[in-house]
Amino acid sequence: MGRYLFGIIVLLYTFSVSAQNKPKPFVSKDSLYNENIKKSRLYGVYIPRDIPDAVQKLMELTEEKARESLKKIDEETVARKLFFGLGRWMSYNWNFDEGSRFSHYLRNKGLYDTDDMVTFMLITFHRNIMNKPLDSDNLLKKIIADRQKKNEEEKKKRETIISITPKKD
Asked: Could you tell me how far CA 110 lies from the centroid of its own chain?
């Protein structure tokens, strides 16, 4: 009787743990994407493996003088001003569109839009320069919520082309 009770408790615990909401890993059916995410270099460019590695690489790639000038500006402004400069460099060289191990890492964190990845990294880079806590989890939540809000607004603006109502007999 004791074994039965123990077995039932273990079984219920297993079901309750497996039913919890876990972020699903991003899986692509694109063979190029699946090859790219395994490589540490793409087209001769080093691809960071995670956020600290990416921030370190950005620190190596930028001059101290340039970083000092960024300290005078808030993070939202830095993200807007550097978006088409450093941001496009990251997007292109770290292969955010076609996939890389870093873009795959960011997708598994919930960032699917390339522009969101760029914004996230620019703000994270600025926080590092300012010696502020990166607070990546909350920043991710904010960017994901902003994207969802933007998508909902765009959905509301869409015009219905045709509406078909089935006839009732």
From this structure: 5
Q: What is the DSSP string of 7-27?
A: HHHHHHHHHHHHTS--PPPP-
Structure token pair of residue 75 = 């993070």
CA distance 68 to 61: 14
State how far the Cα of 87 lies from the Cα of 124, in Å rounded to an integer: 12
Q: How far, in Å, CA of 54 to CA of 87, rounded? A: 13
pTM: 0.76
pLDDT by residue (tens digit) across 108-163? 999 999 999 999 999 999 999 999 999 999 999 999 999 999 999 999 888 878 88
d(Cα 22, Cα 46) in Å, to the nearest integer?
A: 30
Enumerate the domain spans of the chain: 49-149
CB-side exposure of 105: number of CA atoms within 13 Å? 18
Alpha carbon distance 29, 57 (integer Å): 29
Helix (H, G, I), strand (E, B) or coil at 5: helix
The rounded distance, in Å, linking the Cα atoms of 122 and 133 is 14
- Residue 68 CA, chain-centre distance (Å), reads 27
CA-to-CA separations, 102 to 47, 124, 127, 136, 145, in angstroms, rounded: 6, 14, 19, 15, 21
